[in-house]
Amino acid sequence: MILTTCAACAAPLAHDAPRCVRCKTRYCNSTCQHDHWRRGHKQICKRIHRCGNAEQYNADKKYKEAVAVAVEACAEDTKGQKCYICLEAAHPRTGEGLVRGCACGDCDGVKSPELGVAHVSCLAEQAKILVAEAEENNLDDKVWNERWIRWYTCGLCEQDYHGVVRCALGWASWKTYLGRPETDDPRHMALGQLGNGLFAASHHEDALSVRKAELSLKRRVGAKEEHILIVQSNLASTYALLGQVQQALRLKRDVYSGFLKLHGAEHERTLTAAYNYGNALMELQHYREAKALMGITMPVARRVLGEPHELTLKMRCNYARALVLCDGETPDDIREAMKTLEEAERIARRLLGSAHLLTVEIDYTLRRIEALDARESPPQGGCK
Predict the structure, then answer these.
(1) pLDDT at position 237 over 80
(2) How far apart are the C-alpha atoms of 178 and 187, rounded to whole Å?
(3) Helix (H) or strand (E) holding 106
(4) How large a percentage of the chain has pLDDT more than 90?
């Protein structure tokens, strides 16, 4: 359930909290239910029931709101254009406007007008049909996943949708599959897409609620440990963006330990989790712990992923920062940090280009460390 708070008092609810018999709206207890009935629920209870009960009613409402926001945000970019799916400017059934939320036709910052413009409802219907065909024909996992990604990836440019368009498609996905049983894969995946969409649109409080509901669901149905760890990692990122850094740190530590136990030290998921945990340590100024962690995991990343891998470069950047930010750093630490960054910068500049964000960050960190002799402060935080 995405409706995770009491409709009367907004207190957090368990998934099996008591609910209205007719429309399934959830409450803390009978006192809250009776109070909400008197304050107006009586007038809309039947309408909510006719719309598919509380969760469906809420999802449909949120979907319409998200589409309206996306259409407004894309209005200037889609003026005078038509949907590449239905070939209409306004949706023939709903009058819905157009959006553009991918990289279609974007060349050197100039967008080609005929590509990537669509109605959210057309994109959603396209994804729904593709997934339904995969289910009906029992297609293998590879083909099924290739079809599922249409819920968040453009079929033309193969890039992920972003921002408010991703959010609207997240609600579209959830409202499509929320009626499925709790053990149903599309229901789980739709809940994940909703969380990702809210995150992409910077609705972090809402994303946090969805992430918690998703984690609770996966634990309740006995999902695979790897899937639970992925949700925990997403939850940690959301906590961090909300400034709840201690919760984020604890979760990132648990996710790293979980992947280490599940896959071993050389798996890419383990290394990614180690980097995320190290980054959280850096942000909380636990530099000695971050240095120790990167000192163990960075050589593994260099060996397994290779020197040019972005994750390897990010680890090297953070390791260098940790070296000079630890209390009692020595000239040898500074020299090692500079050597590490010089090597990383050469690789990043060659493979990613001088304008890439990571290249710029590595170069900036190197310049600051070189300035230590002039008693300038070293850079804080970690590579993003």
Answers:
(1) yes
(2) 6
(3) strand 106-107
(4) 65
CA distance linking residue 4 with residue 16, whole number of Å: 10
Residues 12, 213: Cα–Cα separation, whole Å: 11
Three-state secondary-structure class, residue 49 = helix
Which ranges in the chain belong to alpha helices (H)?
A: 30-36, 42-50, 53-78, 120-136, 141-148, 163-177, 185-200, 204-220, 225-241, 245-263, 268-283, 287-304, 310-325, 331-351, 357-370
Check if the beta carbon of residue 3 is closer than 8 Å to that of residue 31: no
Residue 321 has pLDDT above 50, yes or no: yes
Tokens of 365: 């960190």
CA angle 221, 222, 228 (to 5 degrees): 105
- 114 touches 84 (CB < 8 A): yes
Decide if pLDDT at 212 tops 60: yes
Mean pLDDT of the chain: 90
Integer Cα distance of 251 and 378 in angstroms: 28
Q: Which two tokens stand for residue 166?
A: 């991703």
Write out the two tokens for 7: 């409709």
Given a cut of 70, is residue 113 above it in pLDDT? no
Radius of gyration of the chain (CA): 24
Quickly count: other Cβ atoms within 10 Å of residue 283's Cβ.
Answer: 16
d(CA 239, CA 219): 19
Rounded CA gap, 23 and 25, in Å? 6
| Residues paired with residue 99 on neighbouring β-strands, in sequence order | 118
pLDDT (average), residues 13-23: 85
In this predicted structure, what is the pLDDT of residue 7?
Answer: 85
CA distances from 80 to 67, 76, 106, 260 (A): 19, 9, 18, 53
3-state SS, residue 19: strand
Q: Give the global pTM.
A: 0.85
pLDDT of residue 106 exceeding 80: no
Residue with tokens 């990836």: 153
CA–CA dist 18, 359 (Å, integer): 54
The residue type at 201: A
pLDDT tens, position by position, 22-79: 988 889 888 988 889 888 898 999 998 888 898 999 999 999 999 999 999 999 989 9
- Other CB atoms closer than 10 Å to residue 251's CB: what's the count? 25
Share of the chain above pLDDT 70, in %: 93
Instruction: Please tell me the distance from the alpha carbon of residue 208 to that of residue 307, in angstroms, as a whole number.
Output: 35
